[in-house]
């Protein structure tokens, strides 16, 4: 598989991962949960040890049991403007992964993205902001293996202050970022930023 370096999607935020239109009819009373703080990384000694990297293999499904996510994955590329493409908004239980980058479980930073909502209501990553440190994320892979990640932090960033290198930068161990929209909602402009989950590989089966 041809691999574009992690820096290829630097300066990209995925504010297109939500419509927010359904909120207009509910007065915003059902806005998705947001992380309590944007600086929630644990001390290094608190993190579970990393598992050995897995051979490259495309992911086919993501499961996050604590927030009841169980969704197929499609490959995502870059748009003509160089931003990360997004899954079709009309399928509320579909997420995507950046298929020109690192495959989840291999050494580096793998990227998974999905909508927080669509025009009908909550979508696949609606509850992403409710995840907590230590939660498990499982990704089924095409080779039959399952890569198991442990959440290190859940952070929210405003679009104008999105830390590209922190989110998309290269890693020396297998890491995962799961991204959706968040950061507050405005009827005039939609969601103001992104929720980002930081996780690293802690097992496989």
From TrEMBL:
The answer to whether keyword Hydrolase applies is: yes
Q: Region Disordered: what ranges?
A: 28-59
**InterPro entries, A to Z:** Sortase (IPR005754), Sortase_dom-sf (IPR023365), Sortase_F (IPR042001)
Q: Name one Pfam family in it.
A: Sortase
Going by the entry's taxonomy, the superkingdom of the source organism is recorded as Bacteria
Transmembrane regions: none
Q: What is this protein called?
A: Class F sortase
């Amino acid at each position: 598989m041809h691999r574009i370096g992690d820096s290829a999607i630097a300066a990209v935020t995925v504010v297109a991962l939500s419509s927010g239109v359904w909120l207009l009819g509910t007065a915003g009373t059902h806005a998705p949960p947001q992380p309590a703080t944007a600086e929630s990384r644990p001390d290094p000694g608190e993190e579970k040890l990393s598992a050995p990297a897995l051979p490259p293999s495309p992911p086919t499904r993501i499961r996050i049991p604590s927030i009841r996510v169980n969704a197929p994955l499609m490959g995502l590329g870059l748009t003509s403007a160089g931003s990360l493409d997004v899954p079709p908004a009309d399928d509320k239980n579909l997420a995507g992964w950046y298929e020109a980058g690192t495959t989840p479980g291999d050494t580096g930073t793998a990227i998974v993205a999905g909508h927080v909502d669509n025009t009908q209501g909550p979508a696949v990553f609606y509850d992403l902001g409710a995840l907590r440190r230590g939660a498990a994320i499982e990704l089924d892979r095409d080779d039959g293996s399952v890569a198991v990640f442990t959440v290190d932090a859940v952070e929210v960033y405003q679009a104008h202050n999105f830390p590209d290198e922190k989110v998309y930068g290269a890693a020396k161990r297998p890491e995962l970022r799961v991204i959706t929209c968040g950061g507050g909602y405005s009827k005039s402009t939609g969601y103001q930023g992104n929720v980002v989950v930081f996780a690293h590989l802690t097992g496989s089966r």
